[in-house]
Amino acid sequence: MPLSNSQYDEIQRQYDARQLQNRHIVERRKNKLYNAYPRLRELDSLIASASARCGRQLLEGDLDAPGRLKGEISRYRGEWESIVTNAGFDKDCLKPVYTCADCKDTGYIGAKLCHCRKQAAIDLVYTQSNIKDVLQTENFSQYTYKYYSNKEKDPITGLTPRENAKKAVKEVLSFLANFDVAFQNLLLYGEIGTGKTFLSNCIAKELLDAGHSVIYFTAFQFFEILAKQRFEKDEDASASLQNIFDCDLLIIDDLGTEFPNSFTVSQLFVCLNERLMRKKSTVISTNLDFNKLNEAYTERIFSRLVSGYKMIKLFGGDIRLQKTKA
Q: Is 245:180 a contact under the CB 8 Å cutoff?
C-alpha cells in the first residue's frame, strides 16, 4: 500500500537498525571467539593471503594456481572449523544473522516486497505493534485446557467444555495447516471469557511466524478506521481500505461489542463480501449467538457468515474470572 514519505523513512530506519543490530551480534560473537582462540585470526589471515595469491597468479596467466592452492586453503578452513567446533560452537556461527532469512533484512526479494516489509507497513499504518506483545503470551505454546471443565456436558453436542475446546483447537490447527491450499473462514462464538480471543491470537501468531500478512482489529477499532476512511475520502484512506481487503488474514475480535448502525452494517457487508470474492481468509469472534447476529447485522450478513464461515463454538466458565481467582 502507498506510504507517505515519513512512513517510508520510518520503515527504512527500522530495516537499517535491524541490519546494524544483527551485524553487531556477529561482530561481538567473533571478537569473543577470536580473543579466546587467537589462532582463528591467524587462519583468517592465511586464508585471505592464499586467496589473494591465487588471484594474482591467475592474472599473471598461471591457470593451475587454483588447483595448487585449493588444498592449502582447505587445510586452513578445516583447522578453523575444528577449533570452533571443539570450542562448542557451530561451524557457521559467524555467518550473517538475519531477522528475515527470505529477504536477508533488505525488505525485498528481487524487485518484489518481502512479506516482512508488507507486514511492517501494516504494523505502522494500523499500529499493530501492540498485538505482537500480546502474542508473546497468547499462543499455542501457552494454551491450556485446564480452565475448561471436564464434567458437565452440553445437552446438544454431548461434549464437556474441555472436549469441545480440544475439538475447536483441532479445527483451528486444520485451518492453519491448510491455509495456503484451501480458502476458509472461521467464526468463533460463545459467551464472554470462553477463550475466543486467545484462540484468535494463536491463529495470528502462527500465520505471522509463517510470513503471512495479518491485520487484527477489535470490532470497535475496525469500524472506527472504516469510518475514518469513508468520511475523509483521501488517497491514503483508500489505500488503507485496499490493504484490509488484500491482507492474507483479517481478524475482527469481539464483533457485537460496537454499536451497530446502518453505517457499520453496510461496511461490514462490503468488507466480508469483498474478502469472500477475493478468497482472503477472515476470522471473526463474537459473544453473540446466531439469533442475535441475525438481528444485529441483517440477513444478508448472516447469510454470508453461515455459508462462508466454519462455525466454532466455545463454552464453559469465564476463564478470565478463573485466572483472577487462581
A: no
| DSSP secondary structure code for residue 90 in this structure | -
Amino acid in the structure at residue 70: K
Identity of the residue numbered 92: D
**Residue 310, burial from CB neighbour count under 10 angstroms (0-12, 13-18, 19+):** middle
Task: Count other C-beta atoms under 10 Å from residue 16's C-beta.
Answer: 11
Query: Whole-structure pTM over 0.90, yes or no?
Result: no
Give the DSSP H/E element, type plus range, for residue 206. helix 196-209
At 284, the amino acid letter reads I
Nearest one of 197, 222, 205 to 285, comparing CA atoms: 197
Task: Count the alpha carbons within 13 Å of 181 in the hemisphere toward its beta carbon.
Answer: 3
pLDDT digits (tens, 9 = 90+) for 185-225: 999 999 999 999 999 999 999 998 888 888 898 898 888 88
Mean pLDDT of the chain: 87
How far out from the chain centre does Cα 79 lie?
Answer: 41
Q: Which of 222, 290, 301, 309 is nearest to 266 (CA)?
A: 301
> What is the distance between the alpha carbons of residues 189 and 193, in angstroms, rounded to a whole number?
11
CA 169 to chain centre: 19
- Is residue 116 within 8 Å of 103, Cβ to Cβ? yes
For the record, the C-alpha cell of 135 comes out as: 502474542
